[in-house]
Design brief:
mainly alpha
Amino acid sequence: MTTTTSPASPTTPATTAPAPWLPITAGAITLVMWASAFVVIRHVAHDVSPGALGAGRLLVAALVVAPLVLRRGWVRPNRREWSLLALGGVGWFGVYNLALNAGERYVDAGTAAMIIQVGPVIVALLAVPLFGERLHAWLIAGMVVGFAGVAVIARGSSTDADASLLGVALVVLAAAMYAVGVLTQKVLLRRLPSVQVVFVSFLTGALICLPFSGDLPGIVADGGAELWWIVYLGVLPTAVAFTTWAYALTHTDAGALSLTTFLVPGIATLIAWLTIDEVPPSLTFLGGALAIVGVLMTRRRPRQG
């Protein structure tokens, strides 16, 4: 899982500014946690169903952030906000987890992390009709380059063409659902507390995953390694990583910090190599580089003239 946009937090007064190394450390911890999630999902993908992995992860995350919601206080959403909460929860946390967990049965952790990087390209594309943003040349070119990168990844990610295409398609679907979540949060966080938004999203996503998680009761009853990997995913890459990312975002430049998420595929690949002896095919790295270049191109703005 990987989520690369985080809720904003209230600005900390200058008199209480933290030591410079603290936001850097928080951001680094977040990146490592997000990268590790791809490896853990890959590690247990064939032993735990996509639904059980997603539902368990999200329920654990909801339990972790529930005390923060109670301490912060509940802000009653209006009808439009409830609709956006449902859309974001179903898309980003429900379908995203199901698609990513299933996709990593067919593609390795590093490859999945690279494909998810096209999420910001999809965000830029959807922002045109939803927020009236301009469809300029840089955006079009970036979309072409970004999805060309996905095509290269699909070509090089597996010797089994059918499995490769299915896995890539599922992870692209996850990236699209990430984009849906980012766009809904952009509206919701104008008024609702960030912890409340993610709490409701966690629960909504879990409800979507539960019908596909028939093996979850058995995993919990068994209390084996699979259960503890699910707990890890819920506590660290989901609940804690959102918190450390929000802290880092509060005390650093948002644009510069967001660019650091491009390190996630490399970190995921390194962790996968060290822990499960898995490295993506060489052609996949070229596709990942193209995807990142495509994202950077979509962030360029045409000259005003």
